[in-house]
Amino acid sequence: MMNNPYYTVKNSWAPLFSALSIFFTMGLLSATMWKSGEGGFFVVALIMFSFMFMIWFKEIYREADSVSTMADKEIPLLEFSFLLFIVSEILFFTSFFWAYFHFSFSPDGEMGNIWPPFSLAPIPFFETPLLNTVVLLASGISITWAHHLFFSKSNWNNGMYLILVTMLLGAYFTFLQAQEYFESPFSINDSSYGSVFFTATGFHGLHIIVGTFLLLSVLVKFVKGVVPSLFQTHFELAAWYWHFVDVVWLFLYICIYWWGY
């Protein structure tokens, strides 16, 4: 097993913390639906997620040091695996859009046979959602600019600043999304509209948080001086992921916020 040309994964606590964080996140979701005691679940879930990302990044750095001499063999497999991951994410979000259009084209009598339901006031698409759209589009421009600087090798330091700008825009998007949730006139248990709305936008918000951590790992790799070829690969994968969540948000904005208003 040790004579193969590929990196052999070492024992790690990351899967355990990942499972615990998912468990407490589901508990948070359940408590939110029933509007009871969600504060404790939120704190524990946040701590578990933090530990998970810390351990995960540590394992990635160790792996990067170990495979520095075999990057040519590892990189194509890493890129292909990540591409398959994005395809699976596309199918994941497709299920939410499918559910949304299913309910919108055939609303039942309890909702007044209209969509959105007559008893529910949807969030105006020209307020916070529009600002969030501008923020994400700006973050897409900044990370594309950083990508150009890195791969043209013209100015890596400016590329780092642009990644930091992208992270700040992602954090601002998360703040606006949380504010929108707190001020929302409906909740996740208000009809099928509320369920699909909060599930779809909530999972997208979670992906924004994950993407922000991925960009943070890129910054740390740059500071630690990881092998340039591996650094560029990890940055490119993070950029793919960020562009993916940008596109998903555009579909969410058009289909759920604008078309469903």
Q: What are the key terms here?
A:
261 residues, mainly alpha, Four Helix Bundle (Hemerythrin (Met), subunit A), 7 helices, 0% strand, globular, membrane
Characterize the structure shown.
This protein has a domain of 180 residues: Up-down Bundle (Four Helix Bundle (Hemerythrin (Met), subunit A)). Helix 1 runs antiparallel to helix 2, helix 3 runs parallel beside helix 7 and helix 5 runs antiparallel to helix 6. The protein is globular, with a radius of gyration of 20 Å. Helix content is 78%, strand content 0%. By secondary structure, it is mainly α. Keywords: Membrane, Mitochondrion, Translocase, Transmembrane, Transmembrane helix. One of its GO terms (biological process) is mitochondrial electron transport, cytochrome c to oxygen.
Strand and helix map with partners:
Layout: H1 14-34, H2 38-66, H3 71-105, H4 128-152, H5 156-183, H6 191-224, H7 228-258
Summarize the structure.
The chain is an all-alpha fold. It has helices at residues 14-34, 38-66, 71-105, 128-152, 156-183, 191-224, 228-258.
What is the makeup of the main sheet? Answer: none
Shape: globular
Question: What is the CATH first-level class name of one domain?
Answer: Mainly Alpha
Tell me the helix content: over 70%
CATH fold title of one domain: Four Helix Bundle (Hemerythrin (Met), subunit A)
Order of helices and strands: HHHHHHH
**Structure summary, number of beta strands:** 0
What count of helical segments does DSSP give? 7
| Strand content range | under 5%
Low-confidence stretches: none
User: What number is the mean pLDDT?
Assistant: 82
The whole-angstrom Rg is: 20 Å
For the record, what is the CATH homologous superfamily label of one domain? Cytochrome c oxidase, subunit III, four-helix bundle
Oligomer kind: single chain
Q: What structural class results from the helix and strand content?
A: mainly alpha
Separation, N- and C-terminal Cα atoms: 58 Å
Query: Which architecture of one domain does the CATH hierarchy give at level 2?
Result: Up-down Bundle
